[in-house]
Amino acid sequence: MRNAGASVDPPTDPSGAASAPPRKHPVRGVSSLPRGVSALPRGVSADIFAEPPAPAAPAAKPSGNGNLPPPAPPVEPWRVPERPAREEPAVVPPPDLELLDPVPQSRTLRRALIGLAALLLVLYLVPAVSMAGKVLPGTTVLGVDIGGQGRTEAVATLRERLYAQARTPMIVRQGARRLTVDPQQAGLMLDAEATVRAAPGGFPSPPEVWSALTGSHEVKPVVSVDRRKLDEAVARVVAAPLERPGREGDVTFDGVTPIPRYPRVGRVIDRRATADQLVRGYLDPEAVIVVPTMRDLPHITRAEVRRALRWARRAVAAPLTLTNGTLAVSLSPATLARHLTFAPEGAVLRPRFDAEAAVAGVEPALVGSARAARDAAFTIKDGRPVLVPGRPGDRVDTDRLAADVLTALDGGGRTVAVSVVNGPPRITDDAAQRMGVREEVGRFTTSYACCPQSAGNIRTAAALLDGRLVEPGETFSFNEVVGPRTAAAGFDGIGPTMIHGRAGTEAAGTAQVATTLMNAVIRAGLRVAEHTPPEVHASHLPIGTEAAVSFPGPDLRWRNDSPYGVLVQASATGTSLTVTLWSTKRYDVDLQGPVVGQQVWLPAVTGHGSGCVATQGQPGFTAAVTRVLRQDGEVVSRQTFRTSYRAQAEVVCR
């Protein structure tokens, strides 16, 4: 039985029924679908949702005999409160997303790019990780492949493979002359560690990986340069044989004779440019260093030299007298000549007079011994130097004296009044203490067995040398300290000499003093500035390091090229002479030799008469002695003393 209520049947008149609003999906909110699109799932027909047909009304029975009961009254249904019918929402399947929201093409392109980037990253990281911490493959140094090696291995490879090339002498050319330079002596060396550090390594970047896989990379070798050694090698190996320095005009003295030295145009090399070319050409087996040269032009003309020569002859023509009240001292022409020099000023030669050195030995006589200032000095006590304090007092004003002497010599005057000043000594106690005179640096002893005359002269010369303090940078002159060999000075047996064509005056035995001093200087590592070997070897003196002296020349001169003072100690006994130098030791000194050549003897000569002097024969030969100076185990200087002795025939008296 159906409940009474509003009919759900469609109205009889379609136009009389209000059209129902379109139904919307409760979730998607879609009110209409595209044409041809069904809201039902696939395979479901809409017929299952059709309304069931209304039941047919019972057919009326035909009236008959009237004996039929009357029809039953209509049944009154149980009233039920009406409730609005609730329609179930229609289930609408989701539309095809591919039709509603198609995928854009940009998303596909982005996915492709991401994939490509990932592939490239893998292609970079795989070789990069294998190359990390090593020299990149394809890296070479002077043709030596060090790619793929660790840094320690690469350094060892370079040292082994480039060992010979790093030590190959370099060729230097100037005109038709060719020289070779040893790179090790020139301070040039392959720095293998720095070269490997300059090579690409670590974790490589993408460009470095690409370069390593597809090509090669040449690394320039790093060269270590010791500038001091390089400059010394250029001066010694290149400049010395190739240069012909220009010479300025000058006037010097040989004894009391002025000697002109005329100017000369020279040729010198550009040392800095040559050194730079050696550095650039190192490790290049085909490099030839072309040495640049330039002219060295003098400033003094020949006419100026002739003018200065005339002035010098007048200056030493007679003695010069220095006066201080009633006191007077005469400077001999030889003393004037020793302390007169010329220096170029532009195109003019100006004379210079060293007044301080000229009056050093006569200053007490000019100002009085009791009033003269005394310089600080040293003496040796108990085997060590002890300071002898100086004292203030009167001194000659040497600056003014130098100008006054030049004025007198220029005007022809021969008397100069000195100016005396009172003040501290020239060498104070503090200055002497700072000179570093503290230890023995050189010693040499020679012996003599005969000739009392020679022994006396040796003691006299040794006394003049003893206690002499040579300041840093000062040049010591044997003839200036010992002075003329005269009887007044305590010498005996004085006679003329001729040494290598130079005439002079000498006392027997003084050459032995000079030789002993020179050998002490050599062992102290000091520089010998001037020495003349004797023509004939003396058997009681060392071969190859002898010094012949005479007054005014030849002379023995050595320079204190150290930053310390040098104290000369000389002592003579009846049979030996010892010279000791005190200072601060700088070098370890090694003497090599003498290397003696073949000896040549002359036949004996027979002499007759009372004037005959028997002479022992001596062979003629050559000798070479080399001094090597080392500092902290490294050779810093090498000097060779070469001597050529002539043979002397034995003289036999009958």
Automatic annotation (TrEMBL):
Keywords tagged on the record: Membrane, Transmembrane, Transmembrane helix
Membrane-traversing stretches: 112-132
Composition skew (Basic and acidic residues), residue ranges: 79-89
Origin superkingdom: Bacteria
Pfam families: PG_binding_4, VanW
Record keyword Membrane present: yes
PANTHER family (UniProt xref): EXPORTED PROTEIN, EXPORTED PROTEIN-RELATED
Name of the protein this chain belongs to: YoaR-like putative peptidoglycan binding domain-containing protein
Species assigned in the record: Microbispora catharanthi
